[in-house]
Recover the amino acids of this structure.
């Protein structure tokens, strides 16, 4: 299967490396120092689930040089969505599937005007990873899972085939019958994790151990779940509490990628996380004071410094 990773960041780099190590034809899109490092010494993955070094990595900054793909894993940062979507036009063939693995909930909606609806499939990546240095992906913890699904919930041949490819590569992957619900379930936790760890500059262990910070985490998730329910998403009434219990069992030093980005002077996705919850809350008349505060506190840093 010809698979293109758009792009070779933390999420795309991890899953692309696993697929390439299993012999799939994987092409990575990268740029800048990351592109140069991968061209020179390959792509390195450091993980408790097993290190990988793809020595002769197929990597380029020109999608047109790759041509039509069977599957594109779309995992760029949210501010790059439309630009990367336009670049994907060169990767489209008659049967190309583009699986959205971004944070947030509106990736398919944002790319439909660019690429049309037929190639696009909603997805969710459950993983904690970051670029340790150009050409090196560091996987934190031991979970790495993919969910993706058609809008109508059907189990199509194109997704069934890709699940088998993932499973052969040791990747936990499954087809979701309700991908919108799955995306909101991730969003509830991600908004809490990203907002709480970035605002406090602390790992999740210190946050759940402190009563005030723990309440902040819970409030961020409760507000997000309330907004999702107001949008018609069937989130369980105790879902935020369930995620709080989940957080208690995570490695104490785990933090959101947004805190990594802040520490490294990178751009932040806060506009599409707490900022989006706050925006939807205003639209739906759902109070979101915790998310309002996180967005206001981090807004001036969202452009980065590098």
């Amino acid at each position: 299967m010809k698979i293109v990773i758009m792009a070779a960041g933390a999420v795309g780099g991890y899953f692309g490396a696993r697929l390439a190590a299993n012999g799939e034809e994987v092409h990575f899109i990268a740029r800048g120092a990351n592109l140069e490092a991968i061209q020179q010494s390959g792509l390195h993955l450091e993980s408790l689930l097993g290190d990988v070094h793809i020595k002769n990595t197929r990597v380029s900054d020109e999608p047109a040089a790759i041509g039509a793909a069977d599957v594109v894993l779309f995992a760029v940062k949210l501010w790059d969505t439309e630009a990367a979507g336009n670049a994907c036009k060169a990767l489209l063939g008659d049967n190309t599937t583009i699986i959205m693995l971004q944070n947030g909930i509106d990736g398919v909606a944002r790319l439909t005007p660019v690429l049309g609806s037929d190639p696009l499939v909603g997805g969710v990546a459950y993983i904690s990873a970051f670029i340790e240095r150009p050409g090196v992906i560091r996987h934190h913890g031991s979970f790495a899972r993919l969910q993706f699904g058609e809008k109508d919930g059907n189990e199509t041949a194109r997704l069934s085939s890709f699940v088998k490819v993932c499973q052969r590569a040791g990747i936990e992957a499954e087809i979701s019958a309700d991908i919108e619900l799955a995306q909101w379930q991730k969003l509830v936790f991600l908004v809490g994790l990203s907002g709480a760890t970035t605002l406090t500059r602390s790992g999740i262990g210190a946050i759940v151990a402190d009563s005030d910070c723990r309440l902040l985490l819970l409030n961020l998730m409760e507000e997000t779940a309330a907004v999702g329910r107001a949008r018609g998403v069937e989130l369980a009434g105790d879902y935020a509490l369930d995620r709080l219990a989940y957080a208690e069992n995570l490695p104490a030093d785990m933090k959101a990628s947004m805190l990594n980005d802040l520490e490294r002077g990178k751009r932040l996705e806060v506009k599409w996380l707490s900022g989006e919850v706050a925006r939807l809350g205003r639209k739906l008349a759902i109070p979101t004071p915790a998310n309002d505060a996180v967005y206001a506190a981090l807004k001036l840093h969202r452009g980065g410094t590098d």
